[in-house]
């Protein structure tokens, strides 16, 4: 039943993202409804949508399903459908087996298939058409991430009146890698349909500007790109962040405190809890990390009776072959380590392949003495910031890969190169064994950074540059 579909051509602020900000939930009476999905981007953009009378254009997350547009909590939801074939070719294929590895330093080989590209363009056109339909004259449209890089140009063709922003949540690669892409020119042109392009870090913005000069022959100056049609396009870094206060508040609730204590007890009251929380993705450096812990436990440098490494790996993109292979590898590595060190009833590595409610994550962050974030490449890594925000009075320590965007801001972390196994092992020991005073000093300075530069500050600075003031 179409309930109050957002009226065509009336939304002043439109977000276009691969995923909708709502998840389907089962009500008590067995009917189904919608609930806001947790996450920083959603938290930051919903107030803007409410202020400006906005609509979110996105995919519901399952294939071959048609959902009518509807209004949710004061803003519009405009679902874009994907067929099963498009799910394979646009989502699992072009987005997650081509762009994802290509943009993450090719830590796995990207695959190039012409059918995937065709599907990608078709789906990008569908998102652009949906946005063009709901956007009011002169509205602001903010397109998100690598799944939708051609939406800006497609949208501009239909609606030159719109103000179009684009934000890439993952790294933008150096030209040596990007030039592999058979559709390199089309992707650059797609992005250049924007008025403003945001990246996670200045290096990504520089890589992009370099390619614009090389492939599109446009002149650039600092973070400005001069397009032959007279437009000046801004391309610069806007490092994304989290709802720091919201996360801190959650971690201070009696429930989070109780769950954290319970967790420590369930883990056998170890001296130190090391924690990893990642999607089970090959960019996250899990193989290297598990290997480092395996060696530390085997050699006894970390006593397997007194220390626990808890690793949460969130199921993700399970239809993509590389992710299936990774899962088997990690299963095997963890099994092998646990079966040879530790003893019955005591596994040094506690490994869970599951999603958890935000409350449970807050409790884990609270309980963890050492947070271990060691991606091989990561645009930002919000988990690192969430850990820092959750630890108020307790000390805690963050071990962080220098290849995560977050390392540019969280400079007081125990920094590691995840490819350097010995270096990583040393930093893990150092983080765990450092003095309380050092822990407090480092965490305090990182907390300051995260609270000053939270998700609201991020959305504000992007939208202010785009000329869309937030009124909250
Ligand atoms: P990525 O975007 O690549 O997954 P980030 O670290 O930037 O990596 O963001 C991951 C987000 O997903 C964080 O907000 C984190 O809290 C959340 N998350 C990760 N694992 C889980 C899990 N098992 N259950 C629920 N939320 C999770
Ligand atoms: C990263 C990407 C997002 C994506 C998320 C989860 O954060 O930047 O665009 O939504 O991973 O991946 P998924 O494929 O499940 O949407």
Could you describe the 3D structure shown?
This protein is of the alpha/beta class. 44% of the residues lie in helices and 21% in strands. The chain has 16 helices and 18 strands. The protein has helices spanning 40-52, 84-103, 114-134, 151-158, 175-178, 184-191, 202-216, 244-252, 254-266, 286-299, 321-340, 358-367, 382-390, 421-433, 436-452, 455-466, and strands at 11-19, 22-26, 32-36, 54-59, 70-72, 75-79, 135-144, 163-167, 196-199, 219-221, 224-226, 232-237, 272-279, 307-314, 349-353, 370-373, 397-401, 414-416. The chain has a ten-stranded mixed β-sheet with strand order 5-6-4-1-7-8-9-12-11-10, sandwiched between helices. A six-stranded parallel β-sheet has the order 15-14-13-16-17-18, sandwiched between helices. A hairpin with a 5-residue loop joins strand 11 and strand 12. The structure holds adenosine-5'-diphosphate (ADP) and 6-O-phosphono-alpha-D-glucopyranose. 6-O-phosphono-alpha-D-glucopyranose is lined by residues 18-19, 145, 169-170, 316-317.
């Amino acid at each position: 039943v179409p309930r109050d579909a957002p009226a065509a051509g009336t939304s002043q602020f439109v977000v276009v993202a691969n995923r909708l900000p709502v998840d389907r939930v089962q009500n008590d009476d067995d009917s189904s409804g919608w609930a806001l999905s947790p996450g920083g981007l959603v938290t930051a953009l919903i107030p803007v949508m409410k202020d400006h009378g906005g609509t979110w254009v996105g995919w519901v997350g399952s294939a071959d399903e048609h959902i009518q547009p509807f209004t949710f909590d004061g803003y519009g939801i405009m679902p874009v459908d994907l067929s099963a074939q498009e799910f394979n070719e646009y989502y699992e294929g072009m987005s997650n087996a081509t762009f994802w590895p290509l943009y993450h330093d090719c830590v796995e080989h990207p695959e190039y298939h012409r059918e995937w590209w065709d599907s990608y363009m078709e789906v990008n056109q569908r998102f652009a058409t949906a946005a063009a339909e709901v956007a009011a004259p002169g509205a602001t449209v903010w397109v998100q991430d690598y799944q939708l890089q051609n939406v800006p140009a497609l949208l501009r063709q239909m609606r030159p009146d719109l103000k179009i922003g684009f934000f890439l949540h993952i790294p933008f690669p150096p030209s040596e890698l990007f030039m592999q892409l058979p559709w390199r020119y089309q992707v650059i042109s797609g992005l250049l349909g924007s008025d403003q392009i945001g990246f996670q870090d200045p290096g990504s913005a520089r890589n992009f500007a370099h390619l614009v000069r090389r492939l599109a022959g446009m002149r650039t100056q600092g973070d400005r790109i001069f397009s032959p049609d007279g437009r000046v396009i801004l391309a610069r870094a806007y490092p994304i962040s989290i709802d720091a206060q919201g996360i801190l508040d959650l971690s201070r609730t009696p429930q989070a405190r109780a769950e954290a204590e319970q967790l420590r007890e369930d883990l056998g009251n170890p001296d130190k809890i090391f924690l990893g929380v990642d999607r089970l993705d090959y960019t996250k450096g899990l193989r290297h990390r598990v290997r480092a812990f395996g060696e530390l436990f085997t050699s006894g440098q970390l006593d397997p009776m007194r220390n626990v490494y808890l690793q949460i790996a969130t199921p993700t993109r399970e239809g993509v072959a590389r992710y299936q292979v990774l899962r088997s590898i990690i299963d095997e590595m963890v099994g092998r380590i646990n079966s040879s060190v530790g003893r019955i009833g005591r596994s040094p590595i506690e490994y869970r392949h599951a999603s958890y409610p935000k409350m449970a994550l807050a409790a884990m962050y609270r309980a963890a003495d050492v947070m271990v974030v060691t991606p091989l490449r990561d645009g930002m890594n919000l988990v690192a910031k969430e850990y820092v925000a959750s630890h108020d009075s307790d000390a805690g320590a963050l071990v962080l890969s220098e290849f995560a965007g977050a390392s540019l801001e969280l400079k007081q972390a125990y920094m590691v190169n995840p490819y350097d196994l010995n270096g990583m092992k040393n930093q893990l020991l150092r983080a765990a064994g450092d003095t309380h005073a050092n822990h407090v000093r480092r965490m305090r300075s990182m907390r300051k950074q995260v609270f000053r530069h939270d998700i609201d500050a991020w959305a504000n600075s992007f939208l202010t540059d785009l000329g869309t003031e937030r009124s909250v």
